[in-house]
Design brief:
12 strands, six-stranded antiparallel sheet, four-stranded mixed sheet, 195 residues, alpha+beta, 26% helix
């Protein structure tokens, strides 16, 4: 389902903060760039250069859509990259290029916008999740094999698979009643929140 997304635009705004802030920025930029339909949008950890932060990538099926997005980003003070082309401040352009390269190689990136994501609400079976979305595989923490197709996943309306070795993989963990839940919490408790 993801083979058609051959053009990847990376963008780096220098965003610091939680995953929720990155999700919000990714969704807002998708609207601003006009790539809300037929897009695969990911967040990426950038550790090179200055402070660790989050960059984004958008994969689209046409070069025209990718170039239009790159032009809009180049007008801002963001880092932007498409293939070997880079725009913006050097450090941010490098982060954008890293995000685009990871996404294009399918070796890194946490998918926020992807085909079928809107259908992954409530409780679904593993088979249904794989059938209706771009997710290629479901993994269970601590288990060498994937779950049975009929196993239920309580999505908590928050399903964020990651690129691993060319596949979009959703990591889950066992939960009450023999169900699974996505490993990533929808609203995690910040470190040291209770002191």
């Amino acid at each position: 389902m993801t083979e058609r997304y051959g053009y990847v635009v990376g963008v780096d705004t220098g965003l610091l903060g939680a995953a929720q802030a990155a999700d919000h920025l990714l969704r807002a930029l998708a609207v601003e760039l006009g790539v809300t339909e037929d897009v695969l949008g990911c967040t990426h950890h950038v550790r090179d250069g200055g402070r660790p932060h989050t960059a984004l990538s958008f994969a689209v099926p046409s070069e025209r859509a990718a170039r239009a997005a790159l032009r809009r980003l180049a007008e801002r003070e963001f880092g932007a990259a498409l293939g070997g082309e880079r725009h913006g401040p050097t450090e941010l352009a490098a982060g954008a290029a890293q995000a685009a390269a990871e996404h294009a190689a399918r070796t890194g990136g946490r998918a926020v916008l992807y085909p079928g994501s809107e259908a992954l609400t409530g409780t679904v079976t593993v088979a249904r999740l794989l059938a209706v979305s771009a997710v290629d595989r479901v993994a269970v923490l601590g288990a060498p094999d994937g779950p049975e197709p009929e196993r239920r996943i309580v999505t908590r309306d928050h399903v964020r698979p990651e690129w691993r070795e060319g596949q979009l993989v959703l990591t889950t963990m066992p939960a009450a009643g023999g169900t699974l839940v996505p490993f990533e919490e929808p609203e995690p408790t910040p470190c040291c929140a209770d002191h």
